[in-house]
Design the sequence.
DNA sequence: GTAACTGCAAAATATTTGCATCCTT
DNA sequence: AAGGATGCAAATATTTTGCAGTTAC
């Protein structure tokens, strides 16, 4: 019997392997939160080679299973894509919230990015909005 | 006689030195555009030590002369702060546009970030909005 | 069995730190 | 003159690449 995780991988034509399952599981467990590369190494229990994590993230990114989130600090963070995200093209039009207290990034699924009017000549393709502040857990 | 550049540095209680002037000049010349660390090394004519660039950017950031811009790719980019940005606290509430063709980042000073309504318990402090697409020069 | 994935080693990059020297005030 | 800034060397950290061994299908 296939689990949800297996299905996600198969849908993207990826082999179902231990590390992929573990990492995907972590993303699901984080539930909308964002993970940096370092988080993944820690939270999986340091079982994988760092290289495998890099490659797995890269693969997930290409297949559209996860997307990267822009942050003001250097860190690159990833979060699971919701339905509607096909490989490459994301309709990831919700707001990301970075907590300055706990450092966690949350996808605010309920908050859509509002429309903006761009100056003449600018052709938008993708919108990203990041709000920094104090999240509801650190309040 | 003091130039604009000298004034900016003095206002932030920084010594007026060659590298700082050069880097600041570059930011002014970029006119709202954003620079990645690599751009600065290139465009100044490779005159400085890489370390100096790192430290200068760090200093400018602390003094509030520049701010960092979040991007979806890993790169960290910086742009000049406008008046109203004191050290640490920026009122940098305009939209940033990243061109997928030429790679340049532009501050769209005329485009304000619209208000959004956050879920209960989230206390916003800073808003960042990044739009990716094709800029007016690459159109 | 074959193609794809992983882990190890090592290379290539990027960033930080220490310290002696030089420049700004 | 004194403190801060720079440049060099080197230590760290991060990310990428090659390849042989292993695993999924």
Sequence:
């Amino acid at each position: 019997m296939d689990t949800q995780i297996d299905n996600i991988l198969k849908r993207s034509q990826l082999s179902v392997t231990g590390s992929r399952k573990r990492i995907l599981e972590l993303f699901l467990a984080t539930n909308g939160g964002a993970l940096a590369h370092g988080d993944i190494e820690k939270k999986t229990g340091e079982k994988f080679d760092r290289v495998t994590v890099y490659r797995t993230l890269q693969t997930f990114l290409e297949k559209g299973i996860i997307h990267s989130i822009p942050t003001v600090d250097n860190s690159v963070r990833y979060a699971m894509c919701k339905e509607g995200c096909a490989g490459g093209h994301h309709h990831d039009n919700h707001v990301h919230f970075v907590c300055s207290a706990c450092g966690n990034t949350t996808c605010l699924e309920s908050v859509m990015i509002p429309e903006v009017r761009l100056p003449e000549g600018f052709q938008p393709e993708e919108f990203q909005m990041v709000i920094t502040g104090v999240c509801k857990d650190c309040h």
Q: What stands out?
A: The interface with chain B takes residues 68-74, 76, 95, 97, 100, 108, 110-111, 113-137, 139 of chain A (CB under 8 Å).
